[in-house]
């Protein structure tokens, strides 16, 4: 992801996170918004790790150095820890909302890609 696209990703994720916190504060559906907040934070963390690792991956490839992993184990362990917390405190965390929160990072990346792709198409006259 380019710098501009990653900044948009951060911006959209913070909008979603702030809307979730606002929903937690205002509505009586606290377990749903707790799961959504927890999942969104974990998704944001995993995407940030992936972005950082991909940048170092390409730098190492260009310098013809040894390439390490992309941080899959770190991301999976963060998701596992999130699920352990959700199962441990299942009265306070809604698990379907947590799963949806875990998917928000991927959904935001797809939306940014589609917006970027259609704006490039319009600029070219396609």
TrEMBL record:
Main location: membrane
Pfam families: ATP-synt_I (PF03899)
Keywords, ordered alphabetically: Cell membrane, Membrane, Transmembrane, Transmembrane helix
GO CC annotations on file: plasma membrane
Protein name (database record): ATP synthase subunit I
InterPro entries linked to this entry: ATP_synth_I, ATP_synth_I_Bacilli
Topology relative to the membrane: Multi-pass membrane protein
Species for this entry: Gottfriedia endophytica
Annotated transmembrane regions: 9-26, 32-50, 70-89, 95-115
Localization in the cell: Cell membrane
């Amino acid at each position: 992801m380019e710098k501009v696209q990653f900044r948009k990703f951060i911006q959209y994720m913070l909008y979603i996170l702030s809307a979730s916190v606002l929903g937690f504060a205002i509505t009586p559906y606290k377990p749903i918004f707790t799961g959504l907040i927890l999942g969104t934070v974990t998704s944001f963390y995993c995407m940030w790790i992936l972005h950082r690792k991909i940048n170092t991956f390409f730098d190492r490839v260009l310098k013809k150095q040894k390439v390490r992993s992309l941080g899959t184990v770190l991301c999976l362990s963060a998701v596992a820890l999130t699920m352990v917390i959700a199962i441990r405190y299942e009265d306070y965390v809604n698990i379907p909302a947590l799963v949806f929160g875990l998917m928000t990072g991927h959904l935001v990346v797809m939306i940014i890609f589609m917006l970027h792709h259609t704006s490039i198409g319009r600029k070219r006259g396609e």
